[in-house]
Structure formats: C-alpha cells, structure tokens
Amino acid sequence: MKTLRVKVSRFDPQTDTGPTLVEYEVRVHEGARILHVLHAIHDTIDPTLSFRSSCEAGQCGSCAVVADGKPVLACYEEAREGMVIGPLALPVIRDLVVDLVPALNDIPGLVPKQGCQPPSYEEMEAIKPLRSCISCLACLSVCPAVSVIRFAGPTAMRQEMRLALDPRDSVDRVTQAVESGLFTCTSCQACWKVCPKDIRIPGKAIEKLRALAGLKGLTLPRHREVNELIRTTGRSVAPEGPSFLEQVDEVIEPNGEVKGTVGFFVGCMYTMRLPMTPLDAIAVLKRNGIRVIIPKEQICCGSPLIRTGQPDYVRTLQRRNIDAFAFRGIKTVMTMCAGCGSTLKHDYPETIPFRVMDISEVLLEYGIEKPARLNVRATYHDPCHLLRGQGISSGPRELISEVIDLVEMPPVCCGSGGGVRSGVPEEAHALAEKRQEEIKKTGAEWVISSCPFCEFHIAGHTPLPVKNITSVLAEGYREKDRRPHRENQA
Ligand code: SF4
Ligand code: SF4
Ligand code: FES
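Above: inputs. Below: predicted complex with FE2/S2 (inorganic) cluster.
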C-alpha cells in the first residue's frame, strides 16, 4: 500500500459559482489507477464526490476524466502523486460527471436498407479501424473546431465513415458528414492522440470522407483551386517574389569540418512565400558543419491534397520528390515545415530510400555551437503536425532555450491546417484569436514556432513578432558575432 495526494475538481452548479480544486490524501495499493483513488476518496473521505464508472476495464468509456491536462480513462491510467484530476471539457453536471447526452445523440446510427447482404470480409476489414469506439467522448472534448463552429465532432465523423462502408446502411453518409461540418476539421490530430482505442479519426475517417465528398463534387471551391495550382505549377501557393529555391545553390558547403549531409525538402510556403526563414536555416546549418543538398526539381509534398481529400495527383508528386532525392543518393531528407515532415514520414511509401528528419532532430543529432543569449521572453507554439504528427516536443524547446527564456502555453491548434485557413476562413480566424488570447496570457515578447502555416497564420493575429526556431538561432549567432569574444564566454 502507499499514500497518494491528488487534487480533484469539485463543482456543484446548483450551489457553486465555479469549480475548485480540493486536495485529498488516500491509501491505495501499488499501481492503483485513478478510479481506485476516486473510490478511496468517495469511500473514506467524502461520499458526495461524483464520478462515473461501470466496466472498470477500459470497455464502457464512462470513466473518462482529465488528468494533468490530458483526457484519459480513469480505470486505465495509473494514479500519480500530485495528480490533478478534472472533468472532460464538456458541460459539467457535477464534479467529474459531464453531460454526454447531446454529443451521444449526434453520433449517427445505422438506418437499415431493405433486402441487403451483410458486409463482405473485405468490407468488415475496412470497417475494423473505426468500430472499436467506446463513446468516451475524449476526442470531442479536445477538438478545437467544435469550440468555434458548428461541427458534429470527431467521433460522429468516425461513425459516418464507418456507416459509409457498411452495405446495410441506407443513408447518404457523405452528404450528411459535409452538412455536419466535415470540412471544419483542422487535421490537428488531437482526437486521435487522446483516443483510448487509438482510432485514427483524421486519417481513417475525415480524409476518407473528404475524398468521397470529392467524388460527389462536394470539395470546397478554394480546395479545388489549390489542386489546380499544384497540378499546373507543382506548388500549392503562388510566389510573391524570388523563391528560396531560386536564391540558393544546389549544394551548400558548411564552414569548417563536414559533420553530416542532408537533403533539404523545403516545402511550398517556405520557398514561395517565406524564403528568409529557410535562408536563416541555411546559415545555422552551415555554421554547425552540415552540408545541405537542395534538389531544385522538388515540388509540393502533397499534404494540401491529402488533407482536403483530393488524393488523385498525390502519387505523381510523391514519385517526383522521391526521385529528386534518391537520384542524388541522399540518405537523410530534412524538413523544416511540420506539415511536409509529417507527410513525408507517414504518407509516403514505407520503401522510400531515405530517412526523414525535422530540422530540430538534425541540429540536435549533430550538436550545435552555443549561440549568444538574447534578453527576450518568448513562447513556443507547437505545430500540430510536429507535436502530434511527429511526436516532437522537447527538441525545439531545447534549441530555443539556448537563446531565450521560454514561457509555456497549452499546445492547441492555431486553426491554419486541414485546408481550414483557405476553405473556412472564419473558423481559422476564430481559432487564431483564441491562440492570441493564450499568447497574451504568457506575457511573451516573441512567438516562436516551426511551421510556415502556423507562423504565417499566427502572425496575422498577434502584434508580436512570430519567428521560426532557426531564425531565433540565427539571431543568437549574429549577436554572438557582434559581441566581444570575452563577453560571449561569460
Ligand atoms: S483532427 Fe482536430 S479538428 Fe479534426 S476532428 Fe480531430 S480534434 Fe477535431
Ligand atoms: S473515438 Fe476514441 S476518443 Fe472518441 S469517443 Fe470513441 S473511443 Fe472515445
Ligand atoms: S469504467 Fe468502463 S472504461 Fe473505465
């Protein structure tokens, strides 16, 4: 047995103006789950504590709570000393009990067809990744889209796709999904990352439904324009001046000893719209002994087409990009756009003849020269496709902290992904406004990120300078070169 101290959110809407955190100390067995702790509080300290549970085995979904900021199943997650336990971000009925009914009512049911056959073996296999939902609604509670626009939410979309694959169902699921907000999903992947059943809703349901919507002519007009631009120019955005690729040599040798060689996949936004950022990256890589090869025939990675459900031309883009790097014998392809990196890592064939690394991974693998410290307080915005898409969180923070003091804010979507910035601009704007509120709370002087879409979008909604990690490192090096030698050593 052991003693654990936890804080639990208590709230009775009949009598309280808002929730309060109450600390409890309980005796529980080794390996106790959150649910054991809640039972111990209820049975030995306060019988009025309200929470839900049923199966106590990860099967019914009724016990979902938020532990230390993350939705989890209370019967599954081990309790830790100092843990803070609260309700899901849904309307609270009392303490940890939330109102599930409206959202559960939004999850569609099968409407049977007359005289249909049961699903074939192949159809059952296709449905498999979507059917293990236990209706815990953890996904809905973290979805940024539902907080600003009418959207039935991730598990409703999962169910629409599941039913679209079922030959017994009689409803036009694709049109229904579009009407329920299919194109408002920002592809942030938060729903997938909190799902206790690991259901990959963005990839397995939303992108698939969007592709089916395309077959019905329901793709958003702005997304069709982007598709056309990619097919005619190879790029998802038009240039606004000389592109990065036009400004650099194909091979850039580092200063001094060569520690490593990478091929640089630049991405549409950085090369066409924000070339100063990859130029900063080149300066940082040169300074740190990394040879950079930049195949000029590289084109869009295909992410804008995959996310918006227009997969037809993606194979062509993939083949041309793979050939561009493979032809030069490049073994490591470096990205600095979170979306391109995630796409190359997860949507390209597993047989690609090179490994893909984000620039933060490259810099940390080879090690960097210490830059000068700048007297600035900054906050870091985790790009969804870097944090959740590539699991990269501590590396960027390690690099940034070499230069400035970092103040944290919650890692939520800025609203620029999934074709939302172009297709549903009012939603993108509302999400960026919420992001700006979080930025303001930190008191930061700069915002730092690692994705051109996030940087561009956030910059349009904050008065603060928004910078890429490599630009911050480059500033640190410029400052180091300006300062007298002795000062840098201090
Ligand atoms: S990917 Fe993000 S925006 Fe889309 S449904 Fe999931 S949580 Fe919501
Ligand atoms: S999809 Fe996953 S997170 Fe969402 S309700 Fe179902 S089990 Fe819970
Ligand atoms: S009590 Fe059923 S899933 Fe936790």
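The pocket of FE2/S2 (inorganic) cluster (ligand 3) is lined by residues 53-56, 58-63, 73, 75 (CB under 6 Å).
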